[in-house]
Amino acid sequence: MFELTPYERRHQRALFNPFRDMENFEKNFWGDMAATDFKTDIKDNGKEYVLEAELPGFKKEDIHVDIEDGYMTISAERSSETEKKDDNGNFVRRERSYGSFSRSFDVSSVKTEDITGEYKDGVLTLTMPKKEENVPTSRRIEIG
Q1: Whole-structure pTM over 0.85, yes or no?
Q2: Radius of gyration of the chain (CA)
Q3: How much is the pLDDT for 28?
């Protein structure tokens, strides 16, 4: 869940690095979302967890929440195409963009059948009731 920033020595910055340059290009184009996953907050409200995922710019139908083998995966995908033509119908500019993000969470301590979700103002909110804790009971066995 924690993001680490790669350490980079100053003298290495002076060297040409096409991978670093492409990463910087992607960061500048997509913003911080290119280098990291979407941001989430998880709150423990006692009997339930509330997960809030920031997904601005996505439509509700572009967001999917799937549960499989004790893991919940939130994925979102978007694409857009803009074009500008001159008076003769020739392209002056035509741009396309695509982005997809995905994160998985361990939900083994959650009643997955009771998870509810809402998407409003670019924030996906999932309410996940906790499973009842099995409190171990002890008893003494009489030896006869």
Answers
A1: no
A2: 23
A3: 60
